[in-house]
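Reading a protein record of the kind used here takes only a little practice. To see the layout at work, look at the sequence and tokens printed below.
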Amino acid sequence: MVGKKGFTLIEILAVIAILFLLTSVAVPMVVNIIKNAKTDVCRSNSLELERKYNEYLYMQETIHTEIRFLEYKEQFFDEICPSGGEITFRDGRVICSVHVEGDGSDEVGDSGVPFL
């Protein structure tokens, strides 16, 4: 084997096995990071909409109606939930049908902000 260069079948299989193991760990982590980012964006947008809509109701000296909320949301906010959840307003809170607080995904305080 003097003067012959190249990889053996065992070496190539070992590299493929290592790459498979790294990929099987990395892909779920990336998917989880993307899911968490979408949840964070939705909660942040929902809190902003909630704050501004409640301020709007106060400044206009009016009460909440579904039609008023939908008109306000469409006028001032393009997309609240990046996952396409339905946004509603109940009991003074903006709620997403996909990212419901208390779903056990993480601990959330009274303000809707995760504990550090």
